[in-house]
Amino acid sequence: MGYHEAPSGWWREFVAELPARTAKLAVVRADGAPHVAPVWVDLDGDDIVFMTAADTIKGKALLRDPRVSLCFDDERPPFAFATIAGTVTLSTDPADLLYWATRIGGRYMGAEEAEAYGRRNAVPPEMVVRVHVTRVVAKVDVAD
C-alpha cells in the first residue's frame, strides 16, 4: 500500500499528456508571502515554458526572483503528481512571444484556436517564462 516513486523521466510524459493539465505555479511576493496561481504550460526538451504578464503578481515575482515551483497532479484514483523546482529565464522577443502563445494556446484550446490565442497573447506586457528544471519529485499510485 502507498505511493510509489515515478520512473525517471516520467514527469515529462505526465506534463505533456493531453488533455493538458494546468500547472500550479508558486512564487514569492515582495513581502515574502507565498503566491500560487494556475498557468498553461508546454515542454521544450527538459524546460517547462509558460507565459505571464510582467505587471501581474507572478510576473513581478519572476522579475525579482527567478526561483519557482510547479505542481501537476492527476486528481483521479489512484492519483499521481509531480512537483518541479527550477529557475526561470524571461523573454519579451516578439517572435518568441508569438511562437509560444500559439503553441500553448493550441495545447489547451485545440489547434483550431491556436492562432487566435497566439495573436491575442503575444503582446506586451506578456513574457515567455522558461523554467530550467533543477529538482523533480514525482509519485504515482498514491492511493494504492
CATH superfamily: Electron Transport, Fmn-binding Protein, Chain A
Series of H and E elements: EHEEEEHEEHHE
Distance between the ends: 5 Å
How many extended strands?
8
Q: What is the total domain count?
A: 1
Largest β-sheet summary: 8 strands, antiparallel
Give the amount of beta strand, in percent.
35-45%
Low-confidence stretches: none
Structural write-up:
With 144 residues, the chain is of the alpha+beta class. It has one domain: Pnp Oxidase, Chain A, CATH 2.30.110.10. It is 29% helix and 42% strand. The protein is built from 4 helices and 8 strands. Strands 1, 2, 3, 4, 5, 6, 7 and 8 form an 8-stranded antiparallel β-sheet that branches. Helix 3 runs antiparallel to helix 4. The N and C termini lie close together (5 Å). The mean pLDDT is 95.
Strand-helix topology:
Layout (H helix, E strand, L loop, with lengths): L3 E2 L4 H7 L6 E6 L5 E6 L1 E4 L2 E7 L3 H8 L2 E8 L5 E12 L2 H16 L1 H11 L4 E15 L4
Antiparallel strand pairs: 1-8, 2-3, 2-6, 4-5, 5-8, 6-7, 7-8
Helix pairs in contact: 3-4
Question: Keywords, please?
Answer:
144 residues; 4 helices; Pnp Oxidase, Chain A
Summarize, please:
With 144 residues, the protein is an alpha+beta fold. 29% of the residues lie in helices and 42% in strands.
